[in-house]
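User: My collaborator sent over this chain with a note saying "see what the structure looks like." That's all I know about it. Can you take a look?
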Amino acid sequence: MTSRYRRPKKQWPKVAPPIANLVSPQLVDAACVGMAPLFDYEIFGESPENQEARWWRGRGVCARCPVRIECSATAGRLGVDAQGIWAGLLRMPTDLRKSV
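Assistant: Without extra context I'll predict from the sequence alone. Here is the result:
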C-alpha cells in the first residue's frame, strides 16, 4: 500500500542579513570552510595571547587559500560587518585594518 502523504517542503531557518551576505558562490572553495571560530575577531573569555595565536593560525590558512582575492572583495562589500580575519588581514569592529 502506498501512502498519499506528501512531505512538507523543507523550510530553511532564517539567517541574519550579515550572515546571509557571507554565503557567496565565490567563497565555496575557501581554505577556511568549517573553521569559522579560528577567524572570529573575539571569542568570549579568550586571553589576549590566545587570541593573537589564533589570528596567526588563521592568517596561515589564508596564505594558502585559492579564493583570497574574492574573500578580500567580499569583506570590502560587507564593510563593518566583516570582522575578524578576512583574506589574511584583521578587520576590527571599528573597520580599522591591520596586518597580523
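A starting point for your reply to your collaborator: Confidence is low (pLDDT under 50) at residues 10-21.
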